[in-house]
């Protein structure tokens, strides 16, 4: 059977990545999050030289930036979830990147994500974000799908308003810690993937704050300075 070249090219183009933790993830560029992040100096993804040099991955991030704002997002990612490697059961959203810093655009992005979750009720989704404004403007008017765990990566010193909002709407809080004893994430402590640790806790909401042990060369000393 002859397959036309444009269709063959489409089959080879994937928007989901397979990250170091053994999870499929939908990633974006860091254009929208770097300037607004108080810990950008210790961002592991930003300091990963391999990602900086990997043109294929960078092209994918640029493509994903456009796709998540598009009306095609749900259809294209759903098709990939169902047919890539015989089907995907868990997807992380934003292991790299975040919602757009423009609130109007970010509301389109989170709405697309909610619709993606609703269209794939048997798939678990885990969303990590530092963009509180997006959550604040969208969540009170829209119920979080049962198969989506939203994790708010808190500021170094979260105020009570952030804490109360997250508790009210069952948004899990997360933070970076300096020691392994403070962490409740096995993967960040032992360096093994989530799959090898047989852990999927981040895909299910918990009142307990998720604490990730700081990693990356020289980042512990940088975090200590930020916490002073």
Please give the number of β-strands: 7
The stretches of 5 or more residues where confidence is low (pLDDT under 50) are 1-12
Cα Rg: 18 Å
Mean pLDDT: 84
- The total count of helices amounts to 9
The biggest beta sheet reads: 7 strands, mixed
Features:
about 230 residues; alpha/beta; seven-stranded mixed sheet; 7 strands; globular; disordered N terminus
Q: What does it look like?
A:
The chain is α/β, with parallel strands linked by helices and 228 residues long. It has one domain (17-227). The protein has helices at 5-12, 49-53, 55-67, 73-83, 103-119, 132-138, 160-169, 186-190, 219-227; strands at residues 16-18, 24-26, 90-93, 124-129, 148-153, 172-177, 210-213. The chain has a seven-stranded mixed beta sheet, with helices on one face. The N and C termini lie far apart (66 Å).
Summarize the structure.
The protein has 228 residues and is an alpha/beta fold. The chain is 37% helix and 14% strand.
Topology:
Elements: H1 5-12, E1 16-18, E2 24-26, H2 49-53, H3 55-67, H4 73-83, E3 90-93, H5 103-119, E4 124-129, H6 132-138, E5 148-153, H7 160-169, E6 172-177, H8 186-190, E7 210-213, H9 219-227
Parallel strand pairs: 2-3, 3-4, 4-5, 5-6, 6-7
Antiparallel strand pairs: 1-2
Helix pairs in contact: 4-5, 5-6
């Amino acid at each position: 059977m002859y397959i036309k070249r444009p269709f063959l090219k489409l089959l080879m183009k994937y928007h989901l990545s397979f990250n170091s933790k053994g999870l499929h993830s939908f990633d974006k560029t860091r254009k929208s999050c770097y300037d607004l992040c108080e810990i950008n100096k210790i961002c592991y993804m930003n300091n990963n030289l391999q990602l900086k040099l990997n043109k294929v991955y960078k092209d994918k991030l640029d493509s994903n930036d456009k796709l998540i704002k598009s009306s095609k997002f749900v259809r294209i990612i759903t098709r990939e979830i169902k047919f890539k490697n015989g089907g995907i059961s868990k997807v992380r959203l934003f292991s790299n990147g975040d919602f757009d810093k423009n609130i109007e655009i970010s509301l389109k992005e989170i709405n697309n994500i909610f619709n993606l979750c609703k269209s794939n009720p048997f798939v678990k989704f885990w969303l990590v974000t530092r963009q509180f404004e997006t959550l604040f403007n969208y969540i009170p008017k829209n119920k979080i799908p049962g198969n989506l765990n939203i994790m708010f990566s808190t500021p170094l010193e979260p105020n009570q308003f952030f804490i109360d909002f997250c508790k009210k709407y069952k948004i899990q809080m997360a933070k970076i810690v300096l020691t392994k004893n403070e962490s409740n994430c096995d993967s960040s402590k032992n360096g093994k993937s989530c799959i090898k640790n047989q852990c999927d806790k981040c895909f299910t909401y918990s009142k307990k704050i998720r604490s990730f042990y700081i990693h990356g060369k020289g980042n512990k000393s940088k975090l200590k300075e930020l916490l002073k």
